[in-house]
Amino acid sequence: MSKELKEQSKPYQILKEVYSLEQMKESLPTSTGFLILQMSDDQRSLFVAYCQVSKERVFKYYVSKVPLSLDKKAKLLGMVQRLASMKTTMQKTPITFEEDLEQLERESEAELTQLLQQMEEFFEPVT
């Protein structure tokens, strides 16, 4: 990679920069919330964390550890794969007529609604 690209590319600089927790917190907008899902290294638990930034820049954190049985893990991975498949379908389906786009949107909306319901059921113990 050329030196010029490294110096001028903001995305590259962001990816290469190491920020402290305080620097990251300063860049978060007020009155926002962030949901973080992270699988444990041994993939037996799922960490669910929520960070809330108030108008006064007060940070509140909520963290839960959800044990994952083999069935729950398979269900979670299935939902992730299904979402990836839906994304690929939306990107690669050829659209010739306006009706094709409308049909794809209807089908995608229905499938996404089902997936969202499954996700809400899966994460019910956390919410």
List keywords for this structure.
single chain; 127 residues; alpha+beta; three-stranded antiparallel β-sheet; 3 strands; extended
Number of helical segments with 4 or more residues: 5
Poorly predicted ranges: none
Mean pLDDT comes to 86
| β-strand amount | 15-25%
Integer-rounded radius of gyration: 20 Å
Q: What helical percentage do the residues reach?
A: 40-55%
- Which class of secondary structure composition applies to the elements? alpha+beta
Topology as H/E string? HHHEEEHH
Number of strands: 3
First and last CA, distance: 45 Å
Strand line-up across the major sheet: 1-2-3
Largest sheet: 3 strands, antiparallel
What shape does the CA trace take?
extended
Task: Tell me what the structure shows.
- The protein has 127 residues and is an alpha+beta fold.
- The chain has a domain at 69-127.
- The protein contains 5 helices and 3 strands.
- It has helices at residues 3-8, 10-16, 21-27, 70-92, 98-122, and strands at 32-39, 45-53, 59-67.
- It has a 3-stranded antiparallel β-sheet, with no helix packed on it.
- β1 (32-39) and β2 form a beta hairpin.
- α4 runs antiparallel to α5 (98-122).
- The longest helix is centred in the C-terminal third of the chain and has 25 residues, at 98-122.
- It starts with a helix and ends in a 5-residue tail after the last helix.
- The relative contact order is 0.09.
- The mean pLDDT is 86.
